[in-house]
Every structure is written in C-alpha cells, then in structure tokens.
Amino acid sequence: MANTPKVRKCLFPAAGYGTRFLPATKAMPKEMLPIVNKPLIQYGVEEALEAGITQIGFIVGRGKRAIADHFDTSYELEHQIKGTSKEKYLDDIREVIDKCDFLLMRQREMLGLGHAILTGEPMIGNEAFAVVLADDLCAAPTEKDDMRALGQLAKLYQRYQCSIIAIEEVPMEDTASYGIISGELIADGIYQVHDMVEKPKPENAPSNMAIIGRYILTPEIFSYLRKTKPGANGEIQITDALKLMAKEHQVLAVKFKGRRFDCGSVEGFIEATNYYYENVYKN
Known about the structure:
Layout (H helix, E strand, L loop, with lengths): L8 E6 L19 E2 L2 E2 H11 L4 E6 L4 H6 L4 H7 L9 H9 L1 E6 L6 H7 L1 H4 L4 E4 L3 E4 L9 H12 L2 E7 L9 E9 L2 E9 L10 E9 L3 H7 L10 H9 L4 E5 L3 E4 L3 H16 L2
Parallel strand pairs: 1-4, 1-6, 4-5, 8-12
Antiparallel strand pairs: 2-3, 6-11, 7-13, 8-11, 9-10, 10-12
C-alpha cells in the first residue's frame, strides 16, 4: 500500500457550550480548560501532529476566539518573557504552530456532531480525514514509542483504506452514554462494523464496545451525513451516518492501545489532571 494517500487533515468539532463546567465555561471554551498547564485542545492537536497530520480545521461557535488566539503567536507575551526561564514553557505550542496550518469555520447552529463534521466539508474536499473530540483525552500507551489513538488509526488506514473508528469496552450499565457498535472480529482488536446504536439502554445495547472521539473517515461520509435525518433532539448523529455507510462500505472499529479520559465530565477531568501531573508533568 505504498501509494495509499496519507491522512493529512483533521477536524476538531469545538462549538459546544461545555455546560457541565459552568461557570468556568461561561466565557472560556471548554476545549481551553487546562490539564495541568496545557489546554485540552492542544493535547488533541499534538496527537494529530504525532500521526503525521498537519492541516487542522476547527469547527467553532460563538465565543470561541480563544482557540484561534492560542494557536497564534502572542508577540507581547513572547517579548515579555524572552530570555527568561519562563520562555521554555512556550516550546510545545511554538512547535505546533510552526508545523501545522490552521483553519476555522463557524457552525452557525448546534445541530450535533454529524452536522459539525458536515460543516467542515469545504476544508476537507475529496480525501480521507481525521476527527478528534478534544474532551476525549487519549494518553500514550505504556509501550515505548507507541503512538496515541489517532496515530494507531492512521496507521491502520494505510492498510485498510476505509473509515475507522476507535472503541473501548465500557461497563454495560454505562452504554446509555455512548454510541455502541456490533461487529465481527476480523483481526486482533479490529471489528468489521455491522451496526451502531446511539446511547442505548443496557438492555438494548448490542455490545459494550463504545465509540470514543477518534475517527478516520473517508470523504463518502459527507453524502451519508446529508442523507441522515435528525434524531429526536434535532441533532444529526455521526453514528447514524456511519451506520448507513457500513451497509455499503467497509467500516472498521479498533480497540486502541492507551488510556482515555472523559474530560467532558468533571470526574474524568480531575482524573486526567492527576494522571498527567504524576506521569507527564513531574517527569
């Protein structure tokens, strides 16, 4: 598969209100909440860069200007700390800014993740692309030199050349919080997807394999998103579009290596903060 085009672009849907973190998110995007000293969305962009992806698209709503500002040069700040011991704290974000290109598009209405991805179609064009949900924070595997979740998916895309989603096993009593897949095991940790159900009750769930916020999608997904009818809450779900797609194209689900933190919840956010402080920041 040497001639398989590599995934070059990644969408970051970031238009939500972050209501579970009010009042902190009243004036600050939830994606800018820091895990120790780095905002959530920077961890996600660094994960994309690790996967060889350098074209980053943010799908934003009103009040999200801080995201654009973060991935830009702050001349006043850099002048103020130039030559001091504090300058080293900007090394990571400088590297990201130097290596990536950034685009922003406004999602004018909050009509679900599927609608947010469809909003990003002009930035993607006719090529495979990644999607990262920043509040799913994926830590690196413990195995040396292994990439995080998105890098694992991008590597598999080179082999299978189809849409690939990341999954993890969750307790059956938690299925109502996730999109759940059913499928056939075709290789170690890799499933051919047959069906998906958005947030089923435990008694109705086809499995306990939950979709998390890492996707590699082929461009055909946009036509399926346009066919997808809004759900009961008026939102267009990516799981519904992928379910349609899986009937006509190969869609794979992969148990990724590493650890995921649900930073959309206060409990997961605190857990991630403690983990990164002990295992990353102090080292």
